[in-house]
Write a structure and sequence with these properties.
Strand content: under 5%
Signal peptide: 1-20
Number of domains: 1
Keywords: Signal
Distance between the termini: 37 Å
Shape: elongated
Protein name: 3',5'-cyclic-nucleotide phosphodiesterase
Order of helices and strands: HHHH
Organism: Methylobacterium iners
Helix content: 55-70%
Length: 87
């Protein structure tokens, strides 16, 4: 698995089943957080809850780009959830 794919799965912010669907937020996470995953959390297996905990524990150490991508992704998910619930 390439480092970018490992980070993408490792973020733990996105359910693995949702990877079939692409979104701007997911792509931004992939681009923005790969280095942060490798630097702070690569000792954990991709996709595990430990990675999400690691990102939370290192939140202040994450690059501004990664932090912004996480915030944007969470906002995108809230918006998507609201639209789905309204249907």
């Amino acid at each position: 698995m390439t480092p970018s794919k490992a980070a993408f799965f490792a973020l733990g912010l996105i359910p693995v089943a949702a990877f079939a669907q692409q979104s701007p937020g997911r792509e931004a996470l992939k681009r923005a957080c790969t280095g942060d995953y490798m630097q702070h959390c690569s000792e954990y297996a991709p996709g595990g809850p430990e990675v999400e905990a690691c990102f939370k524990a290192n939140l202040k150490k994450l690059s501004p780009t990664c932090s912004a991508a996480i915030t944007a992704y969470k906002q995108e998910q809230r918006t998507t959830r609201r639209v789905s619930e309204a249907r």
